[in-house]
């Protein structure tokens, strides 16, 4: 891998992001997170095919927008790495991408009449009616639901539009941010939002944030991400070190 201080810092932060997402239950053995290369907008950093909770700096590869590693070309990658490559290609402002199969999100991917909407001040990044990507529209009715080609990644990136989250029917979600930390923060609170919304729906008709409330809350939270990050990082490092027996 090329060597520079900014690249080393990006790799280190991506390792922490992997551990946080595992520790917070957003990914388990599956799911992944990437960051756009700090010096090369046409490249991104993503682990080789490894469970996020076990990822270390040696696992991080540099990918081109063709979803192939620039070096270490024989390392097996995630099947769904096209999610990342095609979102970075289609959305130049995106700097971080999280793909998750979090269980709480799944009901909102399969019930058309229950769109995921911002329900609390921590999830103002959601817009009303988070889009649902229907893979049948692009891959027919006998796919394995995975984004395993550039063509499917391209369709998913188009479905994202200018949202922070795109739901994937029967599969999970993909979340983007203008920083890696923001994409992680949004993944965690999208999952929180889903749990609150499902609980509220069981009680009655929920009141959602207005567009103005959502925008204000998002601006406030974006300024406070580092406070949560420092706590999540410490907890994640302690818990993943225990897992590894370190
Ligand atoms: Zn997936």
Report on the structure:
The chain is an alpha+beta fold and 246 residues long. It has a single domain, classed as L-fuculose-1-phosphate Aldolase (3-Layer(aba) Sandwich). The chain has helices spanning 5-23, 82-90, 106-110, 136-139, 150-160, 180-203, 211-222, 225-244; strands at residues 32-36, 43-47, 60-64, 96-100, 132-133, 165-168, 172-177. It has a 7-stranded mixed sheet with strand order 3-2-1-4-7-6-5, with helices on both faces. A hairpin with a 6-residue loop joins strand 1 and strand 2. Helix 1 (5-23) packs parallel to helix 6. It is globular. The model has no long low-confidence stretch (mean pLDDT 96). The structure holds zinc ion (ZN). Residues 80, 99, 101, 146, 171-172 line the site of zinc ion.
Overview in brief:
The chain is α+β, with helices and mostly antiparallel strands and 246 residues long. The protein has helices at 5-23, 82-90, 106-110, 136-139, 150-160, 180-203, 211-222, 225-244, and strands at residues 32-36, 43-47, 60-64, 96-100, 132-133, 165-168, 172-177.
Globally, the shape reads globular
- Biggest β-sheet description: 7 strands, mixed
Q: What order do the strands of the largest sheet run in, or round the barrel if closed?
A: 3-2-1-4-7-6-5
CATH homologous superfamily grouping:
Class II aldolase/adducin N-terminal domain
């Amino acid at each position: 891998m090329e060597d520079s201080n900014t690249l080393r810092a990006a790799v280190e932060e991506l390792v922490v992001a992997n551990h946080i997402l595992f520790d917070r239950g957003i990914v388990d053995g599956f799911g992944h997170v990437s960051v756009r290369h700090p010096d090369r907008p046409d490249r991104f950093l993503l682990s080789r095919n490894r469970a996020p909770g076990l990822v270390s700096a040696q696992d991080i590869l540099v990918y081109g927008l063709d979803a192939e590693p620039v070096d270490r070309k024989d390392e097996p990658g995630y099947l769904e790495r096209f999610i990342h490559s095609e979102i970075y290609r289609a959305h130049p402002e995106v700097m971080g991408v999280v793909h998750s199969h979090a269980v709480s999100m799944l009901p909102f991917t399969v019930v058309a009449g229950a769109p995921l909407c911002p329900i609390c001040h921590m999830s103002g990044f959601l817009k009303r009616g988070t889009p649902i990507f229907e893979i049948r529209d692009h891959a027919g009715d006998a796919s394995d639901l995975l984004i395993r080609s550039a063509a499917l990644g391209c369709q998913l990136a188009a479905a994202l539009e200018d949202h922070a989250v795109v739901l994937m029917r029967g599969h999970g979600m993909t979340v983007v941010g203008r920083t890696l930390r923001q994409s992680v923060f949004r993944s965690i609170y999208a999952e929180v939002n889903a749990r609150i919304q499902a609980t509220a729906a069981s009680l009655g008709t929920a009141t959602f944030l207005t567009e103005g409330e959502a925008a204000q809350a998002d601006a406030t939270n974006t300024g406070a991400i580092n406070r949560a990050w420092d706590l999540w990082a410490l907890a994640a490092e302690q818990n993943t070190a225990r897992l590894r027996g370190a």
